Amino acid sequence: MVQRVRKAVLPVAGLGTRFLPATKAMPKEMLTVVDRPLIQYAVEECLQAGIEEFVFVSGRNKGALEDHFDHAYELETTLEQRKKAPELKETQAATIKPGNAIFTRQQKPLGLGHAVWCARHWIGREPFAVLLPDELTLDTPSCIGQLAAAHEKTGGSVVAVMDVPREQTKSYGIAAVKGEKDGLAEITGMVEKPKPEEAPSTLALIGRYVLLPEVFDHLDRHETGAGGEIQLTDAMARMIGNTPFHALRYAGRRYDCGSRLGFLEANVAISLDRQDTKAESRALIERLMKG
Ligand code: UTP
Predict the structure, then answer these.
(1) Span from the CA of 133 to the centroid of ligand 1 (angstroms)
(2) Handedness of CA 138, 91, 134, 109 (dihedral sign)
(3) Facing residues of 177 across strands?
(4) What is the pTM of this model?
(5) Which of 70, 185, 219, 232 has the most Cβ atoms closer than 10 angstroms to its Cβ?
(6) Within 10 A of 45 (CB to CB), how many other CB atoms are there?
(7) Residue 56, pLDDT score
(8) Minimum CA distance residue for ligand 1 atom 15
(9) What is the pLDDT at residue 212?
(10) Can you give the residue ranges of every domain in the chain?
C-alpha cells in the first residue's frame, strides 16, 4: 500500500543574497507578500493538503521563523483588550499545532541537497514533501496537494514542473520526460542549471517535490554539483530508473519570490486578487501608472 505524505521539509537556510541588505538580519522567508510572510504561505499550502508535520531546516538569523508560528501571548492579550477580534484571529491562525514542527540547523549553506539531508532523522523512511518557500504557488487543490495525490497513484517521487523560456534554463533544475498524460509524465533525466543549448527540455522544477526516502541514500554521499553546492537535483537524478519518478505539469499561479521582480509581482498580483485589497490596489496602480 502506498504511504500517505504526512511530513514536509522547509529548507530556509539560504543566504538570500539577492535581497541584501533586507536579509542581513532577517530570513528571506519572512519577507511579506501583502500581509503574511512567505513561510506562512508554504505552511498553509501543506495544511490544505493534509500535511501537518514540519521540519524547518534553518540557518543563522532564523529565530523570527520559529517565533512566527508560536503563540505571542503579550500581543494576543493586548489585541484582546483592545477588542481587535479579526487581528487576533489572524495572529492565532499563524501557529502550528504543539509538537508538529521541528527546527534543525544547516550550519553551513552547502546547497539545497545538503539542507534536505539535514532533515533525514526527522523524516525517517517515509515519503515526504519538500517546499521551497521563496517559490509561492496558489491553487486549489494546492500544488503540493496535487503532487501528494499523484504520489498516491504512482507510488513514487513526483516533482512539479513548468515550462520556462529556453534562455532561463540556467536558473533551474530541468527535467527530461516521456509519455505525458493528463500533465503527468515519466522523468527520464534531470540536470541542474543547464546552459540553454544543453538543456534536455524547458521543463523547470519549481520548488515543490514529493520524494521517496531513498533520496537520502544518495544525499549521504555529499557530492557537489553545479555551483559547487550539494544539489538535490543530482540526488534525484540518481533515483531515476530505480524507483518511479514523475513530473507533474503545474498549471496554477506561481511567483518566484526569490527574485526581486517576482516578489514584486506576487505582491501586486495577490493584492489585486484579494477581496479586501482589490479595489484600493487597482486605484493605486492606476494612479501610479498615470505618473
Ligand atoms: P536559493 O537558490 O534561492 O538560494 O535557495 P538563497 O541563498 O536562498 O538565495 P540567493 O540566491 O542567495 O538570493 C532555494 C531554497 O533553498 C534553501 C533556501 O533557503 C531557499 O528556500 N537553501 C539553499 C538552503 O536551505 N540551504 C542552502 O544551502 C541553499
Answers:
(1) 10
(2) negative
(3) 187
(4) 0.95
(5) 232
(6) 24
(7) 97
(8) 132
(9) 98
(10) 7-258
